Amino acid sequence: MSTDPRERPIAVFDSGVGGLTVLHELLVQLPHEDFIYLGDTARFPYGERSPAELEAFALEIAEELLGRQAKLLVVACNSATAAALPALQARMRQTTLGVDVIGVVRPEAVQAVTATRNGRIGLLATTATVASGAYEQAVRAADPHVDLYPVACPELAPLIQAGFPADPRIVEVVRAAVTPLREAGVDTVILGCTHYPLVRPVLQRLLGRGVEIITSGEALARQVEHVLGARDLASRRTTEGDYRFLSTGDPEVFRDLGSRFLQLPLGPVERVHLRHEASR
Q1: Reaction catalysed by this chain (predicted)?
Q2: Does 25 share its domain with 76?
Q3: 153 an active-site residue?
Q4: Could you say which of 17, 77, 112, 246 is catalytic?
Q5: Of 193, 199, 206, 272, which is the active-site residue?
């Protein structure tokens, strides 16, 4: 491992493989950086867990990634961001390097406020993310005159993870979720879960072509690039960076499903064991 902090990897984590949609944007926009991705598939899904559980999981994962010399931590999980971002930021400030933590909520909220034309924004997210109120706070901070209409979709992420792209139940779940958003007249919809971009064509068809869909990857990648520049942590290399994968669940299952989410070959996946059991 290089002693130069600029050559250390950017760490990304998610409850499963959904965060690979975020990693894909990071790889495209920051091709010279190294990345390490951890998917907590043994404890997936996060969407129905309590805030205390999510905070404990997130802090545990952060310690694992700190041990692998991460220079920046990206929380590519909306539920974990909503429940644990302040605790993660406090913990990372205690490190020698002072590692920054970036979550997916604020970049999406700001992008949605910029995009809306009628001041009506929809949110599709997990139960935990909706219950946290994190998006309401972020949208209000960006523009207090914009209205947010949140809808919880507890079934959607597990369906995508288990059956993408062929499970016909996905269409019916999406149809039920977007109905109240259409009735509310939203012109912009935030996808508040990193799994949801995988079914964006279904979402766009059922929402209508005039509704703008906001995903976390592109906005988050811009924020990562800004932080790296501000902290003088951007890699100086001119060649392609490397990317590695960790999974708390079955590495073979992760690699098979993950390659479809990332749209790139994954290579070896390392199994990691964290302290808390995958109990419900």
Answers
A1: L-glutamate = D-glutamate
A2: yes
A3: no
A4: 77
A5: 193
